[in-house]
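A quick aside before the break. I want you to see a complete sequence-to-structure record at least once, exactly as it would be stored in a machine-readable document. Don't worry about memorizing anything.
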Amino acid sequence: MLELTSVAVWGYALAAAAFGLFGVYLAAAWRGKGAGGRLLLAVGASAAWCVAGAAMISGLAYAGALAAVLSVVRDAAWLAFVVGLIRQIDGSRRTWPQRVAIAVVALRAATVGMTLLSLPWPVDPLRALIFLHLVAAVYALVLVEQLYRLLPSESRWGLKPFCLAMAASAVFDLYLYADAFLFGAIDRDIWSIRGLAHALVLPLIAISASRVPGWAIRLSVSREMVFHSTALAASGLYLLLVAAAGYYVRYFGGDWGRALQVTLFFAALLLLGVVAVSGTQRARLRVWLNKHLFPYRYDYRIEWLKFTRALSASGDHQDLGQTTIGALADLVESAGGGLWLDDGHGRFVMRARLNMPESTIEESADDPLCRFLADEGWVFNLEEYRMRPKTYGALTPPRWLSEMDDAWLVVPLTAGEVLIGFVVLLSPRTPFDVNWEVLDLLKSAQRQAASYLARMQAAEALIEARKFDAFNRMSAFVVHDLKNLVAQLSLMLKNAERHKENPEFQADMLDTVAHVEQKMRDLMQQLQKKTAIERDRPVDLGQMLERIRQQRAQLKPPVSIVIEASPVVVQANAERLERVVGHIVQNALDATKDDGMVTACLRRLDDARALIEVRDNGCGMSPEFIRDQLFRPFQTTKTSGMGIGVFEARQYLRELGGDIRVDSTPDVGTVMQLVLPAPQRAVSNSAAVAQTDS
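That is the input. The structure line, written in tokens, reads:
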């Protein structure tokens, strides 16, 4: 008896918690009108009745009387709710449901009152109470039958779960009180789980509340929650059946009973695990639930968020391709597929695959399949084509697609109005009906996926273009340096006719050729990227200017060097800095007549900066040319120049933290000031720099 009492208390307590939580949910979702208020009242009365039932079983004072009163209130609330739905559908033409309901509730209330007041009964009070409970259960079934019959066939979908819930509760009470009326006593085992039995129908009531707008309750039953709840309930039922079979085997199995029970239980758990991780079984359950419990196959908000999140989380092109296949396949329970994308030359080649073997098949943009996908934008269903080929007009699928055993759907990928690719999806894990809802979702999803893929292709094309641009820019710098080296060789050859017998000229010529040869090797290595770029190191600016002067000793006018501060050291790439300053000096020589003047002066501006000033009295430049063209690449006034020397000079000086300033007047001359970071602490390294440069 103690064990039964505990079961009953826990049963009614859990039922009270279920009704209470559902009542709170209804109160939060109720819009203040419609039948939702009566439903909220019925749920609240049920919660209070369950609490009173648990208290009565626990032996609390006056709990029995309270439970009896609340039982009448609960039944009255549910009958009132059902009668209200009937009146809402049928108007005032049927008055008997309301009258009979009032009579049943009044008789129930009278019998409870007589029992509590200990008034004399003309009949056995227990049998009278049981009989009236039986009448209430039968009348509840009658009302449910009337409600269902009054509903138009197209509207039964919304109230069908509620009718099933009310009928189930009434049938349980009918069985309980019919048994009690027959044997003259209530079955305690059945009565102890009555609260839980009534609470088990709450999910069905919640489904109807979310389906029927007239109840004015904004409930949303999550498909994921329904899926997991159903899977959990099915697993629990399965384990209960296995447990029952195990006890049966143990009871009748003799000496082997316990061993067989353990073996059966282990095998059952193993089978449950296999089913739980099976994508096919999950797909079948999901399709079954969506088909029978929801008006639409998809929860579009959840599906769209999941689809967009999957595309956004992908990395490189290959990952995005596989993600696109997986996201589209999940919408139709497909096992995978392949992605074909335009290679930029009108050929569609496989770029990604998921659970599909690699394929070298290519489709041309002019082939019938691609033209059909581009013109119509339809999802091509091979199963439908095999049964009704005329649906797709004159289209004949390519041979490779027809011979692919698992091929099912061909989904076009359209960015704007351009076909950028298509996805071939494999057969679904479970039978799947492709209706208008599925096709519309696939069309919307493919456009979203196509926009991501098109953006990825555009990004790849931009990166490739930038690589070519960087290569071309580097090539332009190399060609510019080669031009300067060629100019040195040309000048040497021009003077060779006059000075070829001069030993000093011969020695200088050999030095020049060796220098040019080394420079050309360095340029080739940088262009081919076979060696790493030289790291920055301390460079003595005074020694660098002297080398620049010596390299141009044969040119006119001669370059004069003025060093007002020594040593001045800067941290830089020695070759590149010398090339930049040498170009500025060479520009001054090119702009000055043979009897002119070119001077390079080195001095300090302050403790952290140095200045190289290259001054000439050549042709000069206009302010407009300095402002609009001097520092722009490929702008030059020289017939043989490329127009990138000054551009490179400013770029590199700014990389070092310096800059270049220009002051020029036409027919007067030009002053180029190169500002370089040269902190005083670098002076202590000048001896090491001189030794390295020598």
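Two observations worth writing down. Residues 349 and 361 are 7 Å apart (CA to CA). The chain is about 60% helix and 10% strand. We'll return to this after the break.
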